[in-house]
Amino acid sequence: MCAQYKAKKEQRFFTDGITYEISNGKMVNDDVQFEISSKIPQEIFSKKGVTEKYFREVKKLMMSKVKKPADAKMENIIHSTNISEIKDRDYVKCTYVYKENELYGKKDIEDIVRKVQNKNMRLPEIRGAATLPGRAVLYALNENVYKNALNNVNDLIKSNAEVMKNYKNPAKTAARAV
Question: Which residues are CB-contacts of 59 (< 8 A; sequence separation ≥ 6)?
Answer without folding.
Answer: 72, 92
